[in-house]
């Protein structure tokens, strides 16, 4: 995990994607409920501040927070990097990637 601290979120996403491709299998993921609202309010950020800091539209932030839309792992890594969090902190029970 320490190595990942020196990588940008784009590098982590690319690395993760490449590792999944290298394994040569179809992958499923288990994601817990999105905890973006909790993490955002812990930082004292409004939805607009979160949008400004992360580059996402505030409406998208709202949809993730209300679980109208699923927060993808790719976007979780981007959000977590901008918020100074571990991406697992954005899901109720973290996340797991499963091979088939």
TrEMBL record:
In terms of InterPro entries, this protein maps to:
Cro/C1-type_HTH, Lambda_DNA-bd_dom_sf
Highest taxon above the source species: Bacteria
Q: Where is the signal peptide?
A: none
Q: Where's the HTH cro/C1-type domain?
A: 38-90
Q: Which Pfam families match?
A: HTH_3 (PF01381)
Q: Which GO terms describe its molecular function?
A: DNA binding
The molecule here is called Helix-turn-helix transcriptional regulator
State the species of origin: Paenibacillus agilis
